[in-house]
Specification:
Length: about 270
């Protein structure tokens, strides 16, 4: 019963939030990406040793130069097909995040929180924004097409470390008591920056002409702000929608289930002291 309600509530939230996210993307981020793609074809590749060239190809996710027989990866065409699959990706991402938000809200309800669903949803969404965008973006900014970067695996590993550390900082603040929780949260937040985010030593826009570099740097700054507002709109809408959905479909059933489970847990402790 709870599982079915959870899936349907998460799907409803995902359809709404994913659609809003797609609209904001078309307005904020897509024009910047398209403007950067105009310059991407002007990039001049510097000659490199075979090993360095292979490393660069691996970092960019491309196949090594000697693999001429490898088929090109599929990509949606510009226009309606690209818009549709972007919407699908946004809905799937929103579905996974809605399940996570509902799970955290359920744990809070189990712990006996008296907070109403809407403020609780916004608080959980704020923790999600801190964990999945704000802290990771302090070390790894959003990148426009054509920019060189460190190896993809290294960046992914550091992103997971930053997101996990931010989540553990939020857990420390919510679960611990006394001054130690602030020290624990500060330690978790500092950990990714003690390790250090992976960056290349060269200019990430090397290979472009001076005029193209100036334009791309401006577009890069705009893209960082656009992705920040995009992430904020996603998590605010996620908090609002999940808070309302949790109050309407999940909280009554969860509260009744938890109330029935507590006497059984207490009886079990009494039998096995």
């Amino acid at each position: 019963m709870i599982f079915q309600r959870l899936i349907w509530a998460a799907l409803a939230a995902a359809l709404l939030v994913g659609s809003v996210q797609s609209g904001v993307q078309r307005w904020q981020a897509v024009p910047i990406i398209q403007a950067a793609e105009v310059y991407e074809g002007q990039k001049a590749e510097a000659p490199a040793a075979p090993l360095a060239a292979m490393a660069h190809a691996h970092a960019e996710g491309a196949a090594p130069a000697h693999e001429h027989g490898t088929a090109e990866e599929w990509a949606p065409t510009d226009g309606a097909e690209r818009i549709f699959w972007t919407w699908v990706a946004n809905v799937l991402y929103a579905f996974s995040m809605a399940l996570l938000v509902f799970a955290v809200m359920g744990v809070c309800l189990w712990r006996g929180t008296a907070m109403r669903s809407l403020p609780l949803g916004l608080l959980v969404a704020a923790a999600g924004w801190l964990s999945f965008h704000f802290l990771p973006s302090l070390g790894l900014h959003a990148e426009i097409p054509g920019m060189d970067a460190a190896r993809l695996g290294s960046r992914q590993g550091w992103w997971v470390l930053a997101a996990g550390s931010a989540a553990l900082a939020c857990v420390s603040l919510a679960g611990l008591r006394g001054p130690s929780r602030w020290a624990a949260a500060a330690a978790w937040l500092a950990l990714p920056f003690v390790v250090g985010a992976p960056h290349i030593s060269a200019d990430p826009l090397a290979g472009f002409s001076g005029e193209a570099q100036a334009q791309l740097r401006e577009l890069g700054t705009q893209f960082i702000w656009a992705t920040t507002w995009l992430s904020l709109s996603f998590w605010v809408s996620m908090g609002l929608v999940c808070g309302a959905a949790f109050q309407r479909w999940l909280r009554p059933v969860m509260a009744a289930t938890f109330e029935r489970a507590r006497p059984l847990a207490s009886a079990g402790k009494a039998v096995n002291p």
